[in-house]
Amino acid sequence: MKQKNEPTLSLFTHCDDDVICGVDEAGRGPLAGPVFAAAVILDPSRPIEGLRDSKKLTEVRRDELAVQIKSSALAWAIAQCSEQEIDTYNILQASMLAMRRAVEALKVQPTLALIDGNRCPVMAVRSEAIVKGDDKVPAISAASILAKTARDQALRLLHLQYPHYAFDQHKGYPTPLHLERLRLHGVSPVHRASYAPVRKLMTAAIPTPEKLP
Question: Where do the domains of the chain lie?
Fold first, then answer.
């Protein structure tokens, strides 16, 4: 049942023949790893039940929905910005760039991109920002799920390279476990040097993993 005041596409600036993609990012807050973004064009003839903000879903349910989205959507794409790009441009601009890359990678050209949040990346496609869109617009929810599951998988792979940081457990977020491992092992090549906890350790000249015995 639709909740009171829940937005619908009829409230957005769109035409009936618009090809609409939803766009969202994952990983602005972590201290390590890339920021990911996804863009999804859903197929109205193949609805997917249970789409919502990825943060409100269990990991198992996110993974299940990601498979459905990839098999049922008209088009989907996932993109990222590296730690180096985040440090160069700042996390906001890197997130915008990742979202633009995701939209530009779609195999079906959208005419309107609905972006989760309060601002849009600069790109050729007409766009509109939807605050809390990841829990209001199914296409944005789908993008939220793909971005989140892709980033989680990337951090599990980083764990294989740097197992002493436990990336598989905290996915790079500044949890007590992550901060403890940072203090113990120093800053790795995949940590975001521009983030305060990482920058503080680098300034203090704590040994990096390459210098550890």
Answer: 9-158
